[in-house]
Amino acid sequence: MKVALISEHASPLASTGGVDAGGQNIYVAHVAHQLAILGHAVDVFTRWDAPDLPLIVHTEPGVRVVNVPAGPPRHVPKESLLPHMDEFSDWLLRFCHGEAEGGGAPYAVLHANFFMSGLVGLRVKRTLSVPLVTTFHALGRVRRLHQGEGDGFPDDRFRIEDDLVRHSDRVVAECPQDRADLMQLYGADPRKLAVVPCGFDATEFFPMGRQTARARLGWDGEAFTVLQLGRLVPRKGVDNVIRGVAQLRRIYGADARLCIVGGNTDEPNEIATPEIARLRALARAEGVADLVRFAGRRGREHLHLFYAAADVFATTPWYEPFGITPVEAMACARPVIGARVGGIASTVVDGVTGLLVEPRDPRALANGLYRMMRDPAAAEAMGAAGRARALQEFTWEGVARQLVQVYESVRQDSRVATLQSMKSIAEPAAHRAPAIAPRVQMAIAPGQPGRGGREFEDRPGRAAVFLDKDGTLLEDVPYNVDPARMRFSPGARLALRKLAESGMPLVVVSNQAGIARGLIAESAMPRVAEALRRMFRECGARLTGFYYCPHDSQQGGRCDCRKPRPGMLLQAAVEHNIDIRRSWMVGDILDDVEAGHAAGCRTILIDNGNETEWDFAGRRTPDYAVGDLHDAARVIISRQSDVDMPQFPGVRVSAGGSV
């Protein structure tokens, strides 16, 4: 089988540990290597990012790395690469045609890695009729939820990912949490999802005596040492590990040395890697500069020495789609203290191969470090259990074999679809299978909203209605937090009764800039929430959630929760098992509309005079415009059975509304 691996920014030739060189580079390199060992031919298509690179690099028998000319031949941050993907697609299609004209075998399957590679793969799939498998490695809506303004990717990423989830022949999730997010935030059909983890190379990562490894690295032979290894970017939570070491000293009077491996240069350089400067300043401020050492970037042939020399490996990112480094540490028989997020929550078995703690909780990390320090025998036992689990579940050979099964399944599906399409020419349409499968979601475990502690049982996700508060649900009284002055807007009572009958969750999302401006106290918000619950009950409805943003963009309070940003909607979707693509956002200004579209909802504008600018640029065109909330409820009920949301078809007017 001939496989095209597309990885636009993560080349298998790159050194890992830099800003844009990490787990995906490792994944692509090892998948290509193992597929070749299994007898398959692999071409890896990545962007040409250095002028001295040849067009094609034969890395081993059966594997070619093809450097695609797309954009300037230098490093470009991945957040800025999307405009170059048309050029990437054009070149790749010409390459495929040239291969065919030269008698080369066609590709049996395309495997896209990351959403931009998926965009390229989707065009190739449609042009050449080759099955497409997509591994996202990170999901845009999850990233935006956790990083907010720190997310430098354009909002177009959400639309592209939606298209890929719908049109890829198979989507590979890297862990159960990844699968849950794909279904919950993107409406993925579970029948098109396959869970295949990342892995480690047993020839690279293996147990070694701690003292032997320390002698080779020149470390102190006795000091309790914590290792942090990986890309040095804020979301990796290295600052939390520094604070954890500081808390360990302050609370327990115990010192742990911290070695931080990573960066853009072999020697730690604050100019080349600005994150080092921030982390060093933090270590000084926390009073542990004497305990923290930056080792710079290290080649993969040396990484096992660092894992083996450490007493414990700590990794506490804000979120992590999978996380290869905990698996590598386990393979070296070292216990892991990891954040209870993403893939880490499923690779590390709490209390068996290490400990799970909440992200951004240095006290919890300090407690875990002290537990390891106080009971070295238990720590050694966790390391041994981690080694056994890594060998059983996470070898690259096993990953490649699972991917081959995925590839074979999409090839078989493609053959069946071709036969069915030929047969369907003579069949009446009523006999054809439905084109769209029922949406299925993942349940969140009670009491653990958004924390990753989920019960992974499939059950249908719910279409919900998101309601703006002031001007939409309630009369627009500026900075009103007095329950006695909270009154429904026209049509709201009837709307709530009608929506309650539908069974859809009702969520209120509200900008409350008055908190940042000092005009209202945040302590008043619980009273507002209770008043809303009471008002909903009086209409026979139930308020599922009330979310507010306390920031003010005019005072520098930039955030991802303030509409027109989608943060409140995405958080509610995670916490209440909401199928965002079947849901609705209803508001009285175009900022509400933009927030709804950015999250992935259908939108309704209440045209009551509160919108004055009428700027329809980008995502600000509503799907419907109506006169009041009751009219909006009638639209929602009438369209509740729609499976796919319209992609910005323009404004449709219902019940007297106008734009």
Give a written overview of the molecule.
- The chain is of the alpha/beta class and 659 residues long.
- It folds into three domains: 2-195, Glycogen Phosphorylase B (Rossmann fold, 3-Layer(aba) Sandwich); 210-393, 3-Layer(aba) Sandwich (Rossmann fold), CATH 3.40.50.2000; 459-653, 3-Layer(aba) Sandwich (Rossmann fold), CATH 3.40.50.
- Strand 12 (312-315), helix 11 (324-331) and strand 13 form a beta-alpha-beta unit.
- Helix 1 packs across helix 15 (396-424) and helix 8 crosses helix 13.
- The model is unreliable at 16-20, 421-459 and 643-659 (pLDDT under 50).
Radius of gyration: 26 Å
Tally of individual helices: 20
User: What would you call the shape?
Assistant: globular
Low-confidence blocks of residues: 16-20, 421-459, 643-659
Counting helices, strands and paired strands, the structural category is alpha/beta
* Total beta strand runs: 23
Specify the biggest β-sheet: 8 strands, mixed
Query: What is the class of the largest domain in the CATH system?
Result: Alpha Beta
Second CATH tier, the architecture of the largest domain:
3-Layer(aba) Sandwich
Instruction: Give the domain tally.
Output: 3
- Please, what is the CATH homologous superfamily of the largest domain? HAD superfamily/HAD-like
How confident is the prediction overall: mean pLDDT?
87
Strand order of the largest sheet: 3-4-2-1-5-6-7-8
SS strand fraction: 15-25%
**How helical, in percent, are the residues?**
25-40%
CATH topology name of the largest domain = Rossmann fold
Give the termini distance in whole angstroms: 55 Å
